[in-house]
Write a structure and sequence with these properties.
Elements (H helix, E strand, L loop, with lengths): L2 H19 L5 H4 L4 E6 L5 E8 L2 E8 L5 E5 L6 E9 L2 E8 L8 E10 L6 E4 L17 E6 L7 E8 L7 E8 L5 E6 L5 E5 L5 E10 L5 E10 L5 E6 H4 L2 E7 L5 E6 L6 E5 L6 E5 L6 E6 L6 E6 L5 E4 L5 H12 L4 E7 L5 E8 L2 E9 L4 E7 L21
Antiparallel strand pairs: 1-2, 2-3, 3-4, 5-6, 6-7, 7-8, 9-10, 10-11, 11-12, 13-14, 14-15, 15-16, 17-18, 18-19, 19-20, 21-22, 22-23, 24-25, 25-26, 26-27
Length: 404
């Protein structure tokens, strides 16, 4: 970034920071978030967000350039939209939740849906306790689905992790490739035992299994963990066990270049973040705070590097991890433009040229900006909580179709 561009960006952002630094009523911090979870589409054409409409949260899609509403997706039966993800430049995948009270944590229904940005091709993919949308002979029952990877280079499929309860035959964890248009699922591999989470390698194949248990062989309380590596023949090899070395080793993510980030803890001090050797399981630490666990990780827009980690022993503290990545300079400029504020990359386009930036602090209930890497400028988008006298009026209503 040139000095002129950096100065221009700094001046633009400081204008927003100055307005945020004015005294704000405490009510604006405790009121419900009006807009939350804003994510830009892979091509930058759309912004998707959940909008609080009292008893329900709806999924709203807007055009990035004008912020005009394209479509509002509202679930039936008073269900709210929970987590959501862009699976292609024009298709979204999202979960359903129920809100029990004004400030209670919503609980997931186990259901997953998909819909295009313009509202076309709505598809219920997974029903909790009912039959699958396409595999009508299979009962979903108490299986729990979670999204593992949206597959950047595949606009149709995603990889889901399926956890089967202990009461079911074949209890454990399985990975499936799910078609977000038809709902069809293709098995990719199973964990070596029960109570495991699976992690992909750079080729999007199941490579690691992190397995945990809170009981020993005699049934006594004993927190244990094991890390397994999947071999070329499909078998699983034990890489690390807490019973042997007292270390709990957990894989966080594998980047496209094959770097495996992991965390390691002995339960007596905050966990360290680092990388592991995929053959030996040797852990190389990158950062470990003396008093606080890592609360958040900031990744580069290309998913290739861990830019920074956040700890919160008081005010959030950001520690840079990879200062050589080009995104580190961008993050540093943005952070400098908002002194005393927490700056985070909320989402980004596939090419990393547009980044939704989240900014908040103890004097700022939350703001969103859109940073354009080509121009070096940031554009104010919205506040995460509507201030007194503001709201989400005028967004209209639209109902998500019950039938595929």
């Amino acid at each position: 970034m040139t000095t002129r561009t950096a100065t221009l960006l700094f001046g633009l952002l400081c204008a927003g920071a100055a307005s945020a630094a004015t005294q704000i009523p405490i009510q604006d911090f405790v009121r419900h978030p009006t807009y939350s979870g804003v994510k830009i589409s892979p091509d930058g054409k759309y912004l998707a967000m959940t909008v609080d409409r009292d008893e329900q949260d709806v999924l709203t899609v807007m055009r990035t350039d004008t912020l005009s509403v394209v479509k509002i997706n509202q679930l039936p039966d008073d269900k709210s939209v929970g987590a959501f993800y862009w699976t292609s430049p024009d298709r979204l995948l999202f979960t359903a939740v129920r809100k029990l009270g004004s400030y209670e944590q919503p609980f997931g229904t186990g259901e997953w849906f998909a819909v295009n940005a313009d509202g076309s091709q709505p598809r219920p993919l997974i029903f909790y306790g009912t039959r699958d949308a396409t595999q009508r002979g299979k009962q979903v029952d108490n299986e729990r689905f979670s999204l593992l990877d949206t597959l950047r280079d595949d606009d149709r499929n995603v990889i889901m992790e399926v956890n089967f309860p202990q009461s079911m035959e074949g209890a454990g964890t399985e990975l499936v490739l799910m078609d977000t248009v038809t709902g069809r699922r293709t098995p990719l591999g199973r964990a070596p035992k029960a109570n495991c989470d699976l992690v992909l390698d750079a080729g999007k194949k199941p490579r690691f299994a992190v397995c945990t248990s809170s009981r020993d062989e005699e049934g006594e309380y004993d927190e244990r963990s094991e890390l397994y590596r999947r071999e070329g023949d499909g078998s699983w090899a034990l890489v690390s066990a807490s019973t042997a070395n007292g270390k709990h080793l957990s894989v966080v993510r594998t980047t496209p270049d094959g770097t495996v980030y992991a965390s390691q803890s002995d339960n007596s001090a905050p966990a360290a973040i680092g990388t592991i050797d995929t053959t030996t399981g040797a852990f190389t630490p990158l950062h470990k705070d003396k008093v606080a666990d890592i609360s958040r990780m900031i990744w580069s827009t290309d998913d290739r590097a861990l830019l920074a980690v956040v700890t919160e022993a008081g005010a959030p503290k950001v520690t840079m991890i990879d200062e050589a990545h080009p995104d580190a300079e961008v993050y540093g400029s943005l952070a400098a433009a908002f002194p005393g504020e927490m700056v985070d990359f909320a989402s980004a386009t596939s090419d990393g040229n547009q980044i939704v930036v989240s900014v908040y602090s103890d004097s700022n209930p939350g703001e969103l900006y859109l940073y354009d890497r080509k121009t070096g400028k940031a554009r104010f988008l919205m506040q995460g909580r509507a201030l007194a006298g503001q709201g989400a009026d005028g967004l209209g209503q639209a109902v998500f179709a019950d039938d595929p």
